[in-house]
Design a protein that fits this description.
The complex is a heterodimer of chains A (about 625) and B (about 260). Chain A is an all-alpha fold and about 625 residues long. In chain A, about 75% of the residues lie in helices and about 0% in strands. Chain A folds into two domains: about 220 residues, no CATH class; about 280 residues, Orthogonal Bundle (ABC transporter involved in vitamin B12 uptake, BtuC), CATH 1.10.3470. In chain A, the strands form two sheets. A two-stranded antiparallel sheet of chain A has the order 1-2. A two-stranded antiparallel sheet of chain A has the order 3-4. In chain A, a hairpin with a 2-residue loop joins strand 1 and strand 2. Chain A starts with a helix and ends with a helix. With about 260 residues, chain B is α/β, with parallel strands linked by helices. The two termini of chain B are about 35 Å apart. The relative contact order of chain B is 0.17. Classes of the chains: A mainly alpha (about 625), B alpha/beta (about 260). At the A-B interface, helix 22 and helix 23 of A face helix 2 and helix 3 of B. Chain B: Pfam families: ABC_tran (PF00005), BCA_ABC_TP_C (PF12399). Chain B: Involved in beta-(1-->2)glucan export. Transmembrane domains (TMD) form a pore in the inner membrane and the ATP-binding domain (NBD) is responsible for energy generation. Chain B: This is ABC transporter. Chain B: It comes from Bradyrhizobium manausense.
């Protein structure tokens, strides 16, 4: 019994830190509608800086002063980030801020290694809380007890802050309707900056307070960010009390899951999250959100099919790509195959995101399912490659059919979070069901048949499939189905009023995208000769999002360019420098700030400018003056 | 009882939210080609009534029949398939698509081509879309992105979209809200003309009494959830109950009115 009580208390102690980070994310999202991917990075920097400061300062004040100073320092960094980066992209397409903050996260991951080195750092014990308390023969670290008390205290302070101060009232008002708050003459700029600073402060404090419990290391950001997303979603976006309850719930699930259901301990949290999202999409303590006001004056160019010249140019590019084996070596061809596969992956997500307006945060699930499908068929059933390639993606298709059915009932960020939960469930299964999937060791020895074994043959295969998939999806965009899908994206209300079953259309799109991703995954299994849980992990899902956003989410085929640029750059950087994440992250941030429409979007704007500048006096620059008259 | 059922027959429509009776036992009918205005002060239950007709909302009791066929409890898209077009109080259009594409989507749906993955949508019903746009005077805007349109043009586009399934009945929720006075008259004149030509029944709610009295064949008046008057514009105008409860102190005769004067 005592053991369970101690386990429960350990869970509560973990909840404190999780709550701090989650409440910060929740507040930031509530007001700015930014899904701050860098929140985990701020948490991590908080821990690193606190480590340094507590080592440098001495005595009790040294520790506590160091922790608070670290959180304040990171909050300052947050202010800088908000003013320099985020302010420029509040009006960029939805989720573009996610790309920007993801770029930051990449940079931070390399920066902390550069500054603090790659080794785990074990921080000081907190003065006054060094020992343990005996509880019926079980030891509880006294620091854990401190954290257990701290959680509700912070909750109380935040509650007072939001209920009793003018700033808190403004924040709550902005969470409900930020346009209205702006219309009432509130300086939105500084409200956003201060909210961001407070959110980042909480994240950094959460990180700093972890140092007596956990070693500080350079991958702690990704681990926490996933858990924090889960907490915020279960608790309800924008709800502080919800974040607290959910943090406790998640921490206890983690603490007891490992005891009671050791086989499915990882899956448990995501199952709960999925169930909450399905039953109560706005979370336990959140309120159903009124649809956000659409930004008036959308500047999207109407999409049109390629002109015959553009078709010829695309064909020429394909022919050039197909000639690569004539002058490139085996390494370059393998890289080429990988890029082609990621083109498939990216265009599949692009179809769902750009055409359907459904941004999946867990698209790797279907890529990975395709890969595992191939591995099962090839290794367990011993089927020939061509059969595996045809049937393997069906696993992705089935996964998309089941998960997609639930996911399309939601929209926006809730859709994103549910797809993330599903992907994590699939990942947990692959990771923990060792007897079937091999767990972390994966399934090895998935080699292509002799006709596709040579790098050039495999390259042609991957390139051909990528071209076919891209063309097929492009045709679908301009098919009646594509129009219907865009219609549901633009206005569900109007779609239903002209007889369109929006959910069914979106579900179909989800299945198409999932199956296509599965095709990419199937090829990927053969390219690597193996499959691992990473093939359906969250970082692969994020890669797909980045590729789509980089190419341009408002374009028809931005995914192709995004995949080529991102993947090529990524592979090249890894081979050239140890700081590849820093450079890549910097590049992404630069793209976000300078070309908020993505690469293809930028090219379109340039092309349009050139077209428009031929008659004099109609250049874009002259426009403001004309309209001022 | 006549053998041919009326286009729209509403019987004993009732809806309450908690203790508030939003709509109580409302009954009326509408013939083909007839333009019927549903008026009433703010909070009278117009929108609730309207939403129950188009499937956005389910009545507690009562029935709605379209040409004798029950529509109560059906989803908006199913009611649309039965031949009911509608426009919204705040326009709902496909903002990133062109004006023509907006109409084409409705035509694609009407032609049951929604799950056609290979056809070339820009060519589907192109002429028909052009014809509908011409009907509402929007031909010149066909290739403009919908997000760029002025509000009055959006309203006209909505009318074209609503006509795409060759409707028997048009439901228009405050069709002229947010428009300039001249645009209002033009839009309703156009609607009336199309309704007469194609023998479409039109039910609309409206706050602008000039529009109502000029274009409605018949008017029904709601107050606090119940139907208090029904008749020709002249009859309703002269109804003392309507004047007292809804229109206030006869401002109407001076050509103006005050919104939500009572209730």
């Amino acid at each position: 019994m005592a053991f369970y009580v101690v386990q429960f208390l350990t869970g509560l102690a973990s909840a404190a830190s999780l709550f701090l980070v989650a409440s910060g994310l929740s507040i930031i999202f509530g007001v700015t509608r930014i899904v701050n991917f860098a929140h985990g990075a701020f948490y991590m920097i908080g821990a690193y800086i606190a480590f340094t400061l507590t080592e440098r300062f001495s005595g009790a004040f040294g520790f506590w002063g160091g922790v608070v100073a670290a959180a304040l320092a990171v909050a300052l960094i947050g202010v800088l980030v908000e003013m320099v980066l985020l302010r420029r992209i509040y009006h960029a397409p939805e989720l573009f801020q996610l790309l920007g903050t993801f770029g930051l996260t990449l940079m931070v991951e390399d920066l902390v290694v550069l500054i603090w080195g790659p080794d785990d750092l074990v921080g000081r014990r907190a003065p006054g809380f060094k020992g343990a308390v005996d509880f019926f023969g079980q030891n509880i670290p006294s620091y854990d007890l401190f954290l257990i008390v701290l959680g509700p205290v912070v909750l109380g302070i935040l509650w007072l802050l939001f209920q009793r101060t003018r700033w808190g009232v403004l924040v709550r008002a902005a969470t409900q309707d930020r346009d209205m708050v702006a219309a009432l003459g509130v300086n939105q700029k500084w409200l956003f900056t201060s909210v961001f600073a407070v959110g980042v402060f909480l994240a950094a404090l959460g990180g700093a307070l972890q140092i007596p419990r956990d070693a500080v290391h350079h991958a702690m950001d990704l681990r926490i960010i996933v858990e924090v997303f889960v907490v915020v979603v279960i608790g309800g976006l924008g709800s502080i009390v919800g974040a607290f309850v959910a943090a406790v719930l998640v921490s206890e699930l983690n603490a007891f899951g490992i005891l009671i259901f050791p086989k499915i301990s990882i899956i448990l949290v995501f199952l709960v999250m999925a169930v909450v999202l399905i039953v109560r999409p706005w979370g336990l303590f959140g309120k159903p959100e009124a649809a956000a006001r659409k930004t008036p004056g959308l500047t999207v160019n109407p999409w049109r099919p390629l002109t015959s010249n553009e078709r010829l140019a695309s064909l020429a590019a394909l022919v050039v790509a197909a000639l690569l084996p004539l002058f490139a070596g085996n390494y370059a061809l393998t890289v080429g195959s990988e890029i082609a596969i990621f083109v498939i992956f990216a265009v599949s997500l692009h179809f769902l995101m750009s055409v359907g307006g459904l941004a999946s945060f867990g698209h790797a699930a279907y890529f990975g399912l395709g890969a595992y499908g191939v591995a099962f068929l090839a290794k367990l059933a011993g089927l020939p490659m061509i059969v595996c390639l045809l049937l393997g993606p069906l696993l992705g298709c089935m996964g998309a059919a089941v998960f997609g059915f639930f996911a399309v009932q939601l929209s926006g960020v809730y859709f994103a979070m549910l797809t993330l939960a599903f992907a994590q469930i699939v990942w947990s299964i692959a990771f923990q069901w060792v007897s079937v999937t091999g767990g972390d060791n994966g399934i090895l020895g998935v080699w292509p048949a002799s006709w596709a074994a040579s790098p050039s043959h495999f390259y042609w295969l991957a390139l051909g499939v990528a071209a076919l998939v891209t063309i097929a999806l492009r045709i679908a965009v301009f098919s009646p189905f594509g129009y219907a899908l865009r219609a549901t994206r633009d206005s569900v209300l109007r779609s239903e009023a002209v007889g369109i079953d929006a959910k069914r259309i979106q579900w179909t799109a989800f299945v198409i995208a999932g199956t296509t991703a599965g095709i990419g995954g199937a090829l990927f299994a053969y390219l690597k000769g193996s499959v691992f849980p990473d093939n359906l992990g969250i970082s692969l899902s994020v890669d797909a999002l980045v590729m789509v956003l980089l190419g341009g989410v408002e374009t028809v085929s931005g995914g192709v360019i995004g995949a080529i640029v991102y993947k090529a750059l990524n592979i090249w950087l890894v081979s050239q420098t140890d700081l590849s994440k820093l450079v890549l992250g910097g590049f992404i941030v630069l793209i976000v700030v300078v070309f908020p429409k993505g690469i293809v979007g930028m090219l379109e704007v340039l092309a349009q400018r050139r077209r428009k500048s031929s008659p004099p006096g109609s250049s874009l620059l002259a426009k403001p003056i004309e309209s001022a008259e | 009882m006549s053998l041919v059922p009326p286009l729209l027959a509403v019987e004993g429509l009732t809806k309450s939210y908690g203790g508030i009776h939003a709509v109580r036992g409302v009954s009326f009918s509408l013939r083909s080609g007839e333009i019927l205005a549903l008026i009433g002060p703010n909070g009278a239950g117009k929108s609730t009534c309207f939403d129950m007709l188009n499937g956005q909302n389910k009545p507690d009791s009562g029935q709605v029949r379209l040409l004798g066929e029950e529509t109560t409890g059906k989803k908006p898209r199913e009611i649309w398939r039965m031949g009911v077009g509608r426009t919204f109080q705040i326009t709902a259009t496909f903002a990133t698509m062109t004006v023509r594409e907006n109409v084409q989507v409705a035509l694609i749906s009407h032609g049951r081509q929604l799950f056609n993955f290979w056809g070339s949508a820009p060519d589907v019903d192109r002429n028909e879309a052009g014809r509908l746009l011409e009907l509402v005077g929007m031909s010149g805007y066909a290739d403009r992105p919908c997000g760029e349109l002025a509000y009055g043009d959006l309203k006209r586009l909505e009318l074209a979209v609503a006509l795409a399934n060759d409707p028997k009945l048009l439901l228009m929720d405050e069709p002229t809200a947010g428009m300039a006075p001249r645009e209002r008259v033009e839009l309703m004149r156009l609607t009336a003309q199309i309704a007469k030509e194609k023998s479409i029944g039109v039910l609309f709610t409206e706050h602008d009494m000039d529009v109502v009295f000029e274009h409605a064949d018949r008017i029904i008046v709601l107050n606090r959830g119940t139907l208090i008057a029904e008749g020709s514009p002249a009859e309703v105008r002269g109804n003392p109950q309507v004047q007292a409860i809804y229109l206030g102190e006869g401002l109407l005769y001076e050509g103006g009115h005050r919104e939500g004067a009572s209730a």
